[in-house]
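Recap quiz, item 2
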Amino acid sequence: MENSKHLVVGNWKLHPRTLAEAKKVFLATKEASAKASKVDVVVCPPYPFLSELSYLYKGTKPTLGAQDLFYEEEGAYTGTVSGSMLKSVGVKWVIVGHSECRARGDTNKIVAKKLRAALLSEFTVILCVGEKERDHHEGEYYAFVRDEIISALEGVTVSELARLVVAYEPIWAIGGKASDAVTPQTLHEMTIHIRKVLTERYNNTLAKTVRILYGGSVKPDNAASLLREGFIDGFLVGGASVAPAEFAVIIDIAQKSKK
Ligand code: PGA
């Protein structure tokens, strides 16, 4: 079944600096998401804040996600965090394959292992894909995005698909201002491509059930047109998700847009 709600995910990255600030950002987002009955809202704070935020705001919206996880459950893996650790502090969602993690060494193979581990731990997983740059001659970025999806989904079963979200995040569009984002038309072409890849891997009916997000300089100024003309199911928001007033506007736009 196609999901009837929009999905807005905040990826806080390495922000804010303290737990006190994290609580403020979370509270403001909680207020904004309480008004948005038609939007699923998820925030992904840095690891050290997860436990406290989950304890303080148990059962309320937004739902908590993690920005990454490691694929082993325990052992001599300094600096990593496992699925069961995240689960035990109330995390329900996990991002895997973010380009900033890929830049620090996550290959397609590692992303596939992380995706597997996350699904086994019963998380809903946001798989990030996206090309570094656009070559205007060959459209190689389509093949690049296809490879990222197909390799990550190796071994992902039909029943697990209900817990998969694909986020298209072209690296060249990340971390800028509204005008640096992809255009709605270009986004629409990529949404069609991603659905085609999912159809090739599964089938047309199942492909339609996977929510597709866009991420890369999503701001209050461009969110409405990206959502409406890009034919996506929501956003993965970086910078604007730690600016609570901006994030609230983006949530409100998702609430008011038709799905
Ligand atoms: P941005 O980040 O919204 O700051 O461009 C998006 C992301 O990297 O998830």
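The CA atoms of residues 110 and 150 lie 13 Å apart.
The first helix runs from residue 19 to 34.
End of item.
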